[in-house]
Amino acid sequence: MTIIKQQDLIESIAGALQFISYYHSTDFIRAMDQAYQRELNPAAKDAIAQILINSRMCALGHRPICQDTGIVNVFLNVGMNVQWQADMSVSDMCNEGIRRAYLDPDNKLRASIMEDPDGARKNTGDNTPGVIHYEIVMGDTVEVHVSAKGGGSEAKAKFAMLNPSDSVVDWVLSMVPLMGAGWCPPGMLGIGIGGTAEKAMLLAKQALLEPIDIQDLQARGANNRAEELRIELYDKVNRLGIGAQGLGGMTTVMDVKVKDYPAHAANKAVAIIPNCAATRHTHFVLDGSGAATFKAPNLEDWPEVTREIGDNVKRVNLDNITHDEVRSWKPGDTLLLSGKMFTGRDVAHKKMVEMLEKGEPLPVDLKGRFIYYVGPVDPMRDEVVGPAGPTTATRMDKFTHTMLEKTGLLGMIGKAERGPTAIEAIKEFEAVYLMAVGGAAYLVSQAIKAAKVVGFPELGMEAIYEFELEDMPVTVAVDHKGVSIHQTGPALWAQKISQLEVEFHP
Question: Domain check: are 255 and 318 in the same one?
């Protein structure tokens, strides 16, 4: 009989979440470096470079890899011979660990969890509750897997109940392009097959807890159908040419994980859940000897990467930007932004559109200005702002026409692609959409030299800020004519990959 103390689980959960907030696993870094070394598209290579540089900075500075510090998932395998010394339930212990991690005064993490999800959507303030799963197993230990799952990648989860004769490969290949780039590739795909609808989704999520080892699998060969699928999908998904951040390129996925479970004769449940460039997970075992400890990885495991600024880089002063200057930008151009810009996410956009419809003045004048879709982490110590990477831009698509028409807004900055509604509005008003790299939040924050709340302070991280920038790197994603790099880039690189003379092995 093993006695597990309440405090040991709480401290272990809190420690794990702090640990994964600023340390990528070495298998992830190794795979990302391999993707960087083999990338042929300069825009995608630069995006991967930013992710690697950001990761090293976070490891050194103990600050979050991404401003979206995730919804916490906890998987517990509880031995049948374990006895708890506790006055809290196991779920309450896990949530207390989450609370302590996200409120840690040395590295406060962003609280993103909303209660009353289809109503008031009020932030719980401490990122609780987590999503907790249990399995009772033989043994006298408690094995715990902890992950912090970003909302952008979670939003791209897909599920289908296929017919037994349908092809899983064909379905996956039809779904991945529909996922766009909001999940911040390159990353991993977790695929669950079989069981019931909820079991397939759970299998896909659990698959993402496994280490990246596709090269080892390719070298030894598949031993079962799940491994055959991994090898086939890894090759075929990368041949789609979606590439880093959806810009087109050689690597879209660094691994594909497949878990299956026996299914009803009439069903074939299939789920996809992607992991993003801020992949965060770890695991520990409690054996009664105390709280878990986490060994910091060796910083020598991080490659020394520098960004290669090409001839198409343009420095932009947002304080005196003109429409003519915006019209000169081409999709794929790299810009370094300086000057002042505003921020605003879903709730702020909704409030502004409602105010415009009522004829009420906005808290800020957006005419000729740029707005950045971001909800930053709170600053620590001498920071002016915490990690401040972009959020998924498509969530603002339904507001774009009104914002461009009624405010004179000139440009927007976010993550991943824009949908057809937003692109048509950008074209109509000759505005522009710029893309910052998802998964490089701490790196981006270094370009922010001043920050202040200028609207809707009650919204917390979703308030409107004014940022003062110095050389913030972005890519022109949709130009004033409505040409989108997220449409042209992947199409071009899928064609290039198919034309390679050597066999394609990402």
Answer: no
Q: Are residues 140 and 155 in the same domain?
A: no
pLDDT values of the chain reduced to their tens digit, one per residue, 506 residues: 899 999 999 999 999 999 999 999 999 999 999 999 999 999 999 999 999 999 999 999 999 999 999 999 999 999 999 999 999 999 999 999 999 999 999 999 999 999 999 999 999 999 999 999 999 999 999 999 999 999 999 999 999 999 999 999 999 999 999 999 999 999 999 999 999 999 999 999 999 999 999 999 999 999 999 999 999 999 999 999 999 999 999 999 999 999 999 999 999 999 999 999 889 999 999 999 999 999 999 888 898 887 766 666 899 999 999 999 999 999 999 999 999 999 999 999 999 999 999 999 999 999 999 999 999 999 998 899 999 999 999 999 999 999 999 999 999 999 999 999 999 999 999 999 999 999 899 999 999 999 999 999 999 889 999 999 999 999 999 999 999 999 999 999 999 998 875 444 54
Predicted model pTM: 0.92
Question: Do 416 and 395 contact (CB within 8 A), yes or no?
Answer: no
**Which domain, by its residues, includes 89?**
1-38+70-149
Our separate counts of H helices and E strands in the chain read: 15, 19
Angle between the N-to-C axes of helices 6-22 and 90-102, in degrees from 0 to 180, rounded to the nearest 10: 40
In 344-374, which ranges are E strands? 370-372
Q: Tell me, yes or no, whether 258 and 142 share the same domain.
A: no
Residue 76: in which H helix or E strand, if any? strand 71-79
Report the domain count for the chain: 3
CATH assignment at residue 174:
3.30.1330
The single residue listed with the structure tokens 């696993």 is 25
